[in-house]
Amino acid sequence: MRCTRRTMLAVACLxxxxxxxxxxxxxxxxxxxxxxxxxxxxxxxxxxPLAERLGEKLGQxxxxxxxxxxxxxxxTHQIATARPDGGTLLFTTGSFIGNLAFSQQPLPYDPxxxxxxxxxxxxxxxxxxxxxxxxxxxxxxxxxAIARARGGLTCAISGFGNITHLAAEQFKxxxxxxxxxxxxxxxxxxxxxxxxxxxxxxxxxxxxxLPFLREGSLRAIGYTGRxxxxxxxxxxxxxxxxxxxxxxxxxxxxxxxxxxxxxRILKVQRAVREIxxxxxxxxxxxxxxxxxxxxxPEEFADVLQRELxxxxxxxxxxxxxxxxxxx
Length: 327
Prior knowledge:
By secondary structure, this protein is of the alpha/beta class. It has helices at about 5-25, 40-60, 75-80, 95-100, 140-150, 165-175, 185-195, 205-215, 260-275, 280-285, 295-315, and strands at about 30-35, 60-65, 90-95, 115-125, 130, 155, 180-185, 200-205, 220-225, 250-255, 290.
């Protein structure tokens, strides 16, 4: 049969249409969004409405599930070994990279090979150093003096390689004091331990700590962001308190299993971009000091490479650099 130009165009259009139809038909069953931290933390505040909106955009329920364990290593391993169909998503923080930079044991997966970046959901928030009022400190200078006088403080973190751990290591480096790190399963347990008088300080994003700051049961000492927190403007940044190099910014991202068809990843990424830039969701993010992003996977991959370089630099300075990347 002679293949005319018109025939070729018709075949191309059919193929394009079939591919489009196949893409638009997905998903055909519910999806799952896993968060590797305990309920009640900042990832719940943003993750639950994100899952709900994403389900509306995709036409299928997105089940939000908390899967804490080993600073996200357990959940990430499950994502890495899941069926590569885009049906399981991981919503987490820079601890995804921190585990690679700080882990003293081989990871059971390679986060740069076995897990696919979908999109950087939001970034820009700093960490608030939150202290028990029992300490009597109202500034970094006072807190450092108390730490020296007592031979150190106790500090709750959400896991090694987590941003709370990075902030704690920066505290030790910049103040020249010691911290006894108490590893817990998220922000909510960390705040609870301070309220109970069992721990002296922690580093937290703004939303979960805000009610306690307002009632005076916790005290904000300093903020690691580029500028003062909009919701706690009376608390100076670390730079304002004399620590010129102390800046630490958090992020939230979405990943899925490597090998997932690219059109499915892009479908999720585009839906997330629309969600986070909707006025009400942008307002929610900015109340937590985050800025909406939602860019394409390749941009997120570049962000992760830069984040890895930064975290490896911190890990080397404090003598905790990972000896091996993965299994």
